[in-house]
Amino acid sequence: MNMVEETGVIVSLDGNYASVAPLSPTDCMSCAGSGSCGTTLLAPLFSKKKRLLVAENTINAKPGDEVVVGLNRTALVFASLMVYLLPLLVLVIAAVAGESLALGLGLEDGELIAILSGLGGASLTFIFVSRVIRSAFFSVFFEPILINRR
What class, spelled out in words, does domain 3-71+145-149 have in CATH? Predict the structure, then answer.
């Protein structure tokens, strides 16, 4: 299986599952983009809340252990397409359909209807995608895996 790997630290154990806090990228200065990167500039605004991954503890790791967590690459690409591309496509299609409907009905303010229908379509798509990704079928597909200890 093609995996994206990230390093983290076991924060706590709950039965057979481990809560893992991904290590933040502290080596930004070693990157070629260093100080001019958007991530470096915006990281202090968004990194206050620690995100935790929950994975089955198949490697018998203990709290404080540094581990490698694997995420299914196909699942990440699929989720990215659903979250970014699908709402954008629906926004454009709904806007064109709204303007066509307004012109067909003889309404003068077709642009406003196009904007409202586009935003409405994109909003409904975000809600739909959120529910699909959180469904039981897809939750297994997106589940992180503990690969090994460091």
Answer: mainly beta
